[in-house]
Amino acid sequence: MRAGYNVRGIVRSELTADKVHRAFPEYEEELSLVVVPDILRTKAFGEAVQGVTEAAAIEGTINILDSITRNAPQVRQVVHTSSFGATLDPSKGTWPGHVYTEADWNPMTYAEVVHEDTTVLAAYYAGKAGAERAAQDFMATETPPFDLVTTCPPYVCGPIKRLTASLAHLNTPSMEIYRLMSPI
């Protein structure tokens, strides 16, 4: 936004949208938010991607690599956190016994999932795979002075930054951990 870009973000509720707008009042014109309460619903992001010209995960990854190349010559290694979803090929099913390697890729592109009747998770995975491919292409064409290491974790969790007033407002990873610890 500071660089003149318009940014469209996705939030889960109007309450969150209000909080974000209050946190960034100087970007009232550049920041738009779309409320998507159920990100697992098919076509949940339909409105959010209308008119979007670049996928944030892909463009964001390239922007950070380019910035490091131009402004941080002391950096020797960059760790890119992708997702296990970038390696999943939905046509293979659960693929029992398969050992995943760097040769495994999710074949869907971000452009395909935006224009097809796919789930939000499929769009997320395609975006992660696209960002990872873009990072590898960047490394091959720009030959920066650092190494790139990509990790594809199946799950990421950590401490909650802000405690919420109710369980209904926990983020997905925290809710899953809560469910594991809760009595049946």
UniProtKB/TrEMBL annotation:
Coiled coil: none annotated. GO terms for molecular function: oxidoreductase activity, acting on the CH-OH group of donors, NAD or NADP as acceptor. Keywords: Oxidoreductase. It comes from the Eukaryota. Belongs to the NAD(P)-dependent epimerase/dehydratase family. Dihydroflavonol-4-reductase subfamily. This is NAD-dependent epimerase/dehydratase domain-containing protein. It comes from Aspergillus coremiiformis. The lineage of its organism: Eukaryota, Fungi, Dikarya, Ascomycota, Pezizomycotina.
